[in-house]
Amino acid sequence: MDRAVLRHRQRWGTPEVVGRAPGRVNLIGEHTDYNDGFVLPLALPFDTVVAARRAPEGSSTEVFSEDFGHAVLAPSTAEIDPTDWAVFLHGVHRLLHAEGFRPGPWRATIATDIPAGAGLSSSAALEVAVVSTVLHLAGGELSAAEVARLCQRVDNELVGIPSGIMDQLISAAALAGHACLIDCRSLHVEPYPLPEGSVVAVIDTGTRRQLVDSEYADRRAACARAAAAMGVGSLRDAELADLERMPCELATERRRAHHVITENRRTADAAQAMAVGDAAALGSLMIASHDSLRDDYEVSGPALDQMVEIARGSAGCLGARMTGGGFAGCAVALVQTEAATEFQARVAQRYRDESGLDAEIWLCDPAAGASTTSGAGVVNAAR
Ligand code: GLA
Fold it and tell me: Looking at residue 55, what is its pLDDT?
C-alpha cells in the first residue's frame, strides 16, 4: 500500500482513495463454480493496491503499474488486444462506463505482492481492486456479489476468458480468519473459521501454466455435454445415479461429471468439518479432492502431483491438493500449526532434491476481502 501511495504522490499527487483486493487460495471445491456448485476458498494476505484520484475534466484516464508501466484507458468499443498487459484494466474501465459508473477522468497507481501466474488470482484481485476504487470515485455502491459478477463479465465478455465466479467473489467478500463456502448459484457466502491448531500452507511449485486456456474451456464444454446428456440444467443438479444414464461414448464426460458431483459433496462435507473444528476430516477431503482432479478431471500436472505427494508424506500434514485451475502453479496444504515451520523447511528441501526446482511456501492467515480507504477511513468496498 505504501508503495502505491508513494508512487502516486510522486506522479499525480496525493490519492483521494486507496483500494485493495486480495488474491485467493481454494481449500476445496475445484472446477465446480461454473457448474453452479460449491467452493471453499479464502483470501490470502497478498493484495493488489490501487491509489487513485480524479483528474481535471478533459484529461485522459491513465494508469501506472509498478510492474508493467503506463496505460491510457478509453471507453471505446474497439476490440481489446488480449496480449496487452492492461487488458483487465481496459475491460474494467469499459464495463464500469457502460454500467453508468462514470467519475470523469481519473488516474491510478497500482502495486501488488500477489505472485503472478501462480494461480492465486492476481487478475481477479486487480479487477476487484480497480472496480472498488472507481466505484468510490463515482460515488457508486455495489454488493460483493455485484462486484464479482461485473468482474466476471470483464473476463467472459471483454477479455475472452471463460472463468467462473469464485476468484472475484472471494476477493470481494472474504472475511479475515475464515474460509467461505460459496454457493455459486445463489452467490450466498458463508464464513467458516479454520479448525484450531491448523494452518493453511500455500505451496508454489515454481512451475507455470502454458497453453492450457483451451483445457479450461474443454472441461467447461465437457461438463455442459454431460449435464445435457443427463437432462439437468447444470451438474449441480446431477446425482451419482444419473451417471448411469450417460451413453458409453460419453465415457470422458462421465468421468468429468463424476468429479464435479463428488467434489460438490466433498465441499459441503468440508464446510461441515470446519463447523465442528475437525481438521483431520477436512484434510482427508482435500486428499480425495486431489485424487479426483488428477484421475477423473485430469487437470493436475507432474509438479503438482509430486509436490502433493511430498507434502502428504511430511509430518504434521493433514491434507494437500492442487488448487485453482490446475496443470501447474500452486498446491495448498492443511498443516498442524505446531509442525508448520518444520513442514515448510522439509517440503521445500525434498522438492528441491527430487525435482531440482525451488518452491515457495507461505503459511497464511485468511485475510479480509476488498476495502477502500479515504479521508473517511477504511470501508468494505462491497456491501
Ligand atoms: C480458475 C477460474 C475459477 C475456477 C477455478 C477452478 O481459477 O478462474 O473460476 O473455475 O479455475 O476451480
Answer: 97
User: All 3 cell numbers of residue 263?
Assistant: 467434489
Instruction: Find the largest Cα–Cα distance for the chain.
Output: 65
Q: What is the DSSP code string of 330-348? A: EEEEEEEGGGHHHHHHHHH
pLDDT score at 82: 81
229 contacts 245 by C-beta, under 8 angstroms: yes
Distance (Å, rounded) from C-alpha 370 to C-alpha 348? 31
**How long a stretch of residues is the chain?**
383
CATH 3.30.70.890 domain residues, the chain? 195-364
* Residue 84 bears catalytic tag: no
Give the pLDDT band of residue 378 (cuts 50, 70, 90).
low
Fold exhibited by the domain 195-364: Alpha-Beta Plaits (3.30.70)
Distance, in Å, from the CA atom of 144 to the CA atom of 117, rounded to the nearest integer, reads: 24
**pLDDT range class, residue 383, cuts 50, 70, 90:** very low
If you ran DSSP here, which 8-state letter would residue 194 be given? P
Which of helix, strand or coil describes residue 231? coil
CATH 3.30.230.10 segments of the chain: 2-190+371-382
Q: What pLDDT, in 10s, does the model give residues 220-232?
A: 999 999 999 999 9
Looking at the CA of residue 33, tell me the nearest atom of ligand 1: 10
Give the HSE-up count for residue 344: Cα atoms under 13 Å, Cβ half-sphere: 13
Q: Which of 163, 236, 293 to mutate to test the pocket of ligand 1 (most atoms within 8 A of CB)?
A: 163
At 209 the pLDDT is: 83
Can you give the pTM of this predicted structure?
Answer: 0.96
Q: Which CATH class is domain 2-190+371-382?
A: alpha beta
Q: What is the mean pLDDT of the chain?
A: 95
The candidate with the shortest Cα–Cα distance to 237, out of 251, 226, 250, is: 226
39 CA to centre of ligand 1 in angstroms? 10
